[in-house]
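WARN no homologs supplied; continuing
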Amino acid sequence: MKRGFKSQSEKRAIEVRKAFGLTDIEPLQAHEVACKLGVRVWSPNDITGLSAEDLAHLVHGDPDGWSAFTMRIDRKFLVVYNPAQTQPRVNSVLMHEIAHIMLGHELANAGITDDGHLIPSHYNQEQEDEADWLGATLLLPRPVLLWIRRQSMSNEIASQHFNVSGQMLQWRFRMTGVDAQLSRSRY
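OK structure emitted
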């Protein structure tokens, strides 16, 4: 990632919370951010003309095979997400897609393989890494992580409170070094 991107993401997470009238430590929900940005959010159930067979395949046939994708229609964005995934996972993948939009990333075109699978025509790892980082930071900025630890909140309760997976919470603690920072400050 570009120099300064991580600290800019932390600042942006606080700015977004302020725009919503939230404090630095209040939960932020991806659906609310999408609404504020004018991004439509659909599940496959909202797509008219989708056959029952295709809908069943998307939602039940391979529920872990996809999470979400973003489309641009004229100058508006539409994010389609997989409703078969857990609510914390949906919140995370929606925020990841919103991060792509906020960062002005180029959307991938998609193609269909000979066996009928939809695949992106190009994949930009740097953009994916940036969207991962910003999306996670929007959900769990540094002040939230510090607050969780200072409250002696369990990871399970914190995950529920902020509507994120335990895996994401642990990843943010590890990547930000908050636990190490607090451990050093105790000595």
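The radius of gyration is 18 Å.
OK
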